[in-house]
Structure formats: structure tokens, C-alpha cells
Amino acid sequence: MRSENDLYKRIEHILCELLPDVPTAMYLAPSLSEKESLKLLSLSSAANPPDINYLMARAETLKSQQILHGDNHYCIVLRKNKAVMGLLWIGEKIPMSRCYLVGHLINVFYNQLNTLALSRIDPLTQLLNRQTFDDKVIEITTGEGFIAEREQQGVRHWYLALFDIDHFKVVNDNYGHVIGDEVLLLVAQQLKDNFRAEDFVFRYGGEEFAVLFQSHDSNETLRLLDRVRAVVANYVFPQVNHLTISIGFTLLDDICQVSELVHEADLALYHAKKHGRNRVVDFDELGIAGQAKAETDIELF
Ligand SMILES: Nc1nc2c(ncn2[C@@H]2O[C@H](COP(=O)(O)OP(=O)(O)OP(=O)(O)O)[C@@H](O)[C@H]2O)c(=O)[nH]1
């Protein structure tokens, strides 16, 4: 199957072929999730971006229409249920037949993007699955992905955090796998609720989760992750009542291999487990001795 980037490039190609010299702007929800706001995917050279808020308001009002007619533009709307997932603004009047053709082709690619998005989801938790993880890290480190930038002051860096539920085996042993699955679902929900739409939350393994997110520095990251740790620790789970999570994190370095990166976060997580669980550990704080020690004991995971 093609990647999202291939499909985005195909959309741009179609617009160039079918609408040469016509100003266009294509907007999409990056992971096709209803929680996200639309981001600019492509803008033809001649165009200034249209007023996206105005277009969104019209698309939301005129729910049954796929093509919105303006005085000097068209706007093709991509929808999922009632949510607007994408907009193609065409900045001049073109023959209606061509507008329908473009709308049809854009929909074909949008459906392919949706199929791809579904293949990336873990069925139990609805988080991104392990298979998607490597692709996302590579997209982030190479800058190739359709990554939403946040308008905020200061340079922000990408971090990887690994989360592991403490003594999860005891939950399964004491309450059974159905309750165990419910716990996984609830922890996944808390992770989703405590990160931003532009962050990436994965089910990385059985009871292990991974999050790729941005922050200004390690101190801010530590504070953010500790808040998430506390949210889970204070949550009352049905039957199980309380449980905790351990977290290890590391900075994404663009020369790093994905496997090295995961190894670093894993070492930090290992350290958190080894030193009492229910805590957050920064890989950078481990030092060489910490790494060497953990590497010799790694079979504990
Ligand atoms: N219910 C449920 N359990 C799972 C799933 N995937 C893995 N597990 C269980 O998760 C448990 C993980 O146990 P361990 O790796 O020993 O770790 P732990 O008990 O959490 O202990 P620490 O990580 O050392 O705190 C095992 O009992 C697995 O069977 C799943 O999808 N559903």
C-alpha cells in the first residue's frame, strides 16, 4: 500500500494536471481524526491562502453540499460523518464538469487515506499501532511528514516517551483478561486526553505505550510526563481501583536510528521500574554507568 506522503503527492499532482494555472489550496486533517483542525497541505504558486475560517463556517452550515459555490471560487468539501476532514479551495470559476471531476478524484484519494489510517490503528485501544511507529519517527526526523506546527514561541524538540503499566500481570491474574483489557483501554484514553492532537500516541506492545511529542526542554518534558503519571495514579479504575505507570523518555536526535532511540527510552523506563516504579526517568540523566548497568540486565523486560 502507498504511504500517506505518496498519496499527498498524488493529490498535488492531480491538482497541477487538472487545474494548471488555477489558484488552489488543499487542507486536510493530518491523521484524518475528527479531533484535529485542518492544516494546509498544498497551495498553488499563484494563490494567497483563502480565509479558512470562513470556508469552514460555510462547510459546517451547508452540511449536505460537497461543492460550495462562491462569487469567484469553488470549495470542495471532504467529510467523515458530520465532521469536515478536508477542503479544496479553487480560486477561480472553472467549468462545472471539471470541478466535479476534481472532486471525484480528490475523494478517491481521501478514501485511500482513510483505508491507510484504519490499518494504522490498534483495534483494542484505537491508538496508533506498533507498525506505524517507525514510519512516524522517520517522518519526524527527516521532516517529511505532514506534521502540524504549533504557533508558539521558542524552539520545540521532539521527544519519545515509553509508558509501561506497573505489575499489570497481577491485574490479569487477579481480575481476568477482560478487566485487563478495560484497564488498557482506560490508560490509552488518559494518554490521548493528556497529549495534544498533533502528538502521536501508540500502543507499543501488550501493556506498553509510546508517545512522540514536542516540548521546549527536558525539564518541561519531565513536568508534563509527571503530570500524566499522576493523572493515572489518581484515577479510580473499575474493580482494580488504583494502579501506576512507569515512564522513560529521550530526546529525538535526527541522526539516531529508530532502534537506538527506543533502546534509550527503554533504558530510562527500565531504570524507573528498577527504582520503585510510578516515576519518570530521563535517559540523559542516566549517565554511562546507568546505561551499562541496564544493558546487562535487559532480559528483565
Ligand atoms: N489483558 C491483557 N493483558 C495483556 C495484553 N498484552 C499483554 N498482556 C499481559 O501483560 C502482562 C505483562 O506482564 P509483565 O511483562 O510481567 O509486567 P508487569 O506485570 O506489568 O510488571 P512490571 O512491568 O515489571 O511492573 C502479561 O501478563 C501479559 O499477558 C492484552 O492485550 N490484554
Task: Outline the secondary-structure elements.
Elements: H1 4-18, E1 24-28, E2 39-43, H2 52-61, E3 67-69, E4 74-80, E5 83-90, H3 96-119, H4 130-142, E6 157-165, H5 168-175, H6 177-194, E7 200-203, E8 208-215, H7 218-234, E9 245-251, H8 258-274, E10 280-282, H9 287-296
Parallel strand pairs: 9-10
Antiparallel strand pairs: 1-2, 1-5, 3-4, 4-5, 6-8, 6-9, 7-8
Guanosine-5'-triphosphate binds next to strand 6, helix 5 and helix 6.
Report on the structure:
The longest helix is centred in the middle third of the chain and has 24 residues, at 96-119. It is built from nine helices and ten strands. The mean pLDDT is 88. It has two domains: 4-119, Beta-Lactamase; 130-300, 2-Layer Sandwich (Alpha-Beta Plaits), CATH 3.30.70.270. Strand 7 (200-203) and strand 8 form a beta hairpin. It has helices at residues 4-18, 52-61, 96-119, 130-142, 168-175, 177-194, 218-234, 258-274, 287-296, and strands at residues 24-28, 39-43, 67-69, 74-80, 83-90, 157-165, 200-203, 208-215, 245-251, 280-282. Helices cover 44% and strands 20% of the residues. It binds guanosine-5'-triphosphate (GTP). Guanosine-5'-triphosphate binds at residues 164-169, 172, 177, 180-181, 184, 206-207, 273, 277. GO terms for molecular function: diguanylate cyclase activity.
